[in-house]
Design goal:
The protein is of the alpha+beta class. It folds into three domains: 9-144 and 196-315, Rossmann fold, CATH 3.40.50; 324-510, Jelly Rolls; 531-572 and 575-653. It has eleven helices and 34 strands. Strands 1, 2, 3, 4, 5, 8, 9, 10, 11, 16 and 21 form an eleven-stranded mixed beta sheet that branches. Strands 24, 25, 26, 29, 30, 31, 32, 33 and 34 form a nine-stranded antiparallel beta sheet that branches. Strands 12, 13, 14, 17, 20 and 23 form a six-stranded antiparallel beta sheet that branches. The longest helix has 15 residues, at 76-90.
Length: 657
């Protein structure tokens, strides 16, 4: 870099590249190319190299074997480094000057952000499972409500940021690099909690602020089980550059690894995109519909699915003029085409509504999807449609307009759209959140006047779903949603007025041309690295309820056995053993929002013969009516001896949250 910092990269080249330069594809991440994403990188980047592209996987400044420090997400320095890396790559003798950029999650974010900087060498991007809105549609806040994911993701990044570089690559300076990272450890949730409204901090890197900044072609990809499905239709509607959108049933994964399935031949699809824009070939990809999605069929509720039944459908424009808004009036206990005489209803949800919500973002892991909603429905205000006489298919964002009054100056709503089967089982299809202090906008929250009616509109997440005949639609409204959302400081009593309250559904009429869509081929990929499981680590999700104290304890453990430590895998080709386990614990009493506590504990190990490094972290969050309280600890060990330890205690004012 211009300031002398060196970024580490792994490069796969076609055999002909030294004599016949080729286009390049970049993936730019903080997740340690050497080992952290090696299993995923090799099948993908080797595949691209085998099809005539230079494939480059770069570690962000301060991560992996790169120099410097990683101080936060999506900083301007990250984008400047990306621009310089693109320029350097384009100037190499094995590159013909045409560069593409792709990534899932962080790599999808910075592909959009670097594209907005318009480096001339960047000809196209593929952004997978990312967002164009860092405040309203990321892992921190949703509808102005604080997500518990803010702490979960913050603790993961906190732990990853403390990992060492590999001595095999950086030599004896590895320890100095590692200690520098540890000594400059960032308590990321503290940074994010200091920005509880949409301010300049979040506007930076939010492409939604000005879509016109992107002029190169964009392929936006997402999954219905992911936390970022809303960005794909927004990008299609907002961008004016050549663009395409694809959403399948998957979680937070590349679609060739997609779970729930069906996975698709995404690397082949990506090659069609790169061949079109980096090699100048007419692959036909731009003559296909702009927006293609998996129309999910109704299934009994479950917390895990290998595959979701459904079919591919497509729209040639987005927003589509074919989508019709079906309005259903909210009447006492029902959803109907016409309103009943005005009425009012009351709800005061216990604080443990939401135990069936699943994870905010699915990664294709066991137990993370929303389960049967009947327990949560029983603690919510519910409105059911009559049984459907025919299939109803929706594509887009359902929207609820509600007239309501609450008894506190602060509060939020969770609104769920469920598919209720004849046997009474209730499957969550989509949901939305709204901090009622953010009812006008996210920049200038205003307290509520207790008892004063207000009209609010809550946009639920985009979805494609087919409700079958005989099923009912259910709109469920609650004033708490734990542990997905941090609770309001006081219990909230809500009165809902039916007059003026209604639900809009984005109804999609069937289209015969859907049956003629080109089929996706099966997933392909190059060989991956040889791996051996040394120590298995179970995954568990449990809910415990103390009937005396009223406390509910929700525990999620992944790749860890409490007495033995994290699961261990060996990368055979580099002789490196890795382990990373995490335990998430959430506690609350049904009668007390201020009893909410969250704790995230992580254990990691990196070792080879004669060398072992362990990093253990713990983050906790609690709150009173005025402040959030963050506690964090980090311990780093080399060869079984502690070389670094630090403790944080932070108090952050609540800002209408």
């Amino acid at each position: 870099m211009e300031d002398g910092c060196r970024l580490a990269a792994r490069i796969w080249l076609p055999e002909e590249a030294p004599t016949t330069p080729v286009p390049a594809i970049i993936e730019y991440l903080p997740y340690r190319k050497r080992a952290g994403t090696r299993e995923r990188d090799e099948p993908m980047h080797r595949y691209f190299a085998g099809h005539g592209y230079a494939a480059i996987r770069i570690d962000l400044r301060g991560s992996g074997e790169s120099d410097g420090l990683l101080m936060d997400e999506y900083l301007e320095q990250e984008q400047l480094d990306g621009i310089q890396a693109i320029r350097w790559i384009a100037e190499q003798p094995w590159c013909n000057g045409a560069v593409g950029m792709m990534g899932v999650s962080w790599g999808g974010f910075n592909a959009l952000q670097v594209a907005a900087c318009r480096p001339p060498e960047l000809r196209a991007i593929i952004s997978v499972c990312s967002s164009d809105d860092r405040y309203a549609d990321d892992a921190h806040f949703m509808g102005g409500c604080l997500l518990s994911e803010n702490l979960i993701w913050g603790s993961v990044l906190f732990t990853l940021n403390a990992q060492p570089p590999d001595p095999d690559l950086v030599g004896n300076r590895w320890r100095d690099m590692w200690l520098q990272r540890l000594e400059n450890s960032i308590l990321f949730p503290e940074i994010w909690l200091q920005h509880q409204r949409r301010d300049e901090y979040w506007r930076h890197g939010s492409i939604r602020e000005d879509y016109s900044r992107i002029s190169c072609p964009v392929y936006a990809v997402g999954g219905w089980a992911d936390g970022y499905s809303n960005a794909v239709p927004r990008l299609l509607a907002g961008l004016r550059a050549p663009r395409k959108g694809l959403v399948g049933p998957w979680g937070h994964l590349y679609p060739h690894l997609g779970t729930p399935g069906p996975a698709i031949g995404f690397l082949q699809e990506a090659l069609r995109w790169w061949d079109q824009w980096l090699k100048g070939m007419d692959t036909g990809i731009m003559r296909e519909p702009i927006y293609r999605v998996w129309m999910q069929e109704s299934v009994p509720p479950g917390v895990s699915f290998r595959e979701r039944p459904g079919r591919w459908v497509a729209e040639s424009q987005w927003p589509s003029p074919r989508i019709r808004l079906r309005r259903l009036e909210i009447n006492p206990g029902s959803l109907d085409p016409v309103p009943d005489p005005p009425a009012s209803m009351f709800i005061a949800s216990p604080q443990d509504v939401g135990l069936a919500a699943g994870s905010w973002c699915g990664f294709g892991l066991e137990g993370e999807l929303p389960g049967d909603q009947r327990e949560d429905d029983g603690k919510s205000l519910c409105f059911d449609s009559p049984p459907l006489n025919e299939t109803l298919e929706i594509l887009g964002a359902p929207q609820a307009t509600l007239v309501l009054a609450v008894n506190r100056p602060r509060g939020f709503l969770a609104v769920r759209l469920n598919d209720v089967a004849p046997d009474g089982s209730s499957a969550r299809i989509s949901y939305g959140l709204l901090n009622l202090c953010h009812r006008q906008d996210h920049e200038n929250p205003l307290p509520l006047k207790p008892g004063e009616p207000v009209r609010v509109t809550i946009r639920l997440n985009d979805i494609a779903h087919a409700f079958p005949p005989g099923h009912r639609l259910r709109l469920a409204i609650s004033t708490s949603y734990w542990p997905l959302v941090w609770p309001s400081p006081e219990p909230v009593n809500l009165t809902l007025f039916t007059e003026g309250s209604h639900l809009h559904l984005p109804e999609r009429p069937p289209l015969r041309k859907d049956a003629e869509l080109r089929s996706f081929p099966p997933a392909e990929g190059a060989p991956g690295p040889p791996q051996t499981e040394i120590t298995p680590g179970p995954a568990q999700r449990t809910v415990e309820r103390d009937l005396v104290s009223g406390e509910v304890r929700h525990v999620i453990s992944t790749d860890i056995e409490p007495r033995r430590g994290p699961a261990i895998w060996r990368m055979e080709d580099i002789g490196l053993e890795l382990g990373h386990g995490i335990i998430e614990t959430f506690r609350i009493r049904g009668d007390s929002p201020l009893s909410a506590e969250a704790e995230i504990v992580q254990n990691t190990v990196t070792r080879r013969e004669g060398w072992e490094v362990k990093v253990n972290t713990r983050l906790q969050c609690s709150a009173d009516a005025d402040f959030f309280f963050l506690m964090a600890e980090i311990e780093a060990l080399e060869g079984g001896k502690t070389v670094f330890r630090r403790h944080w205690d932070r108090r952050i004012p609540r800002d209408f949250t």
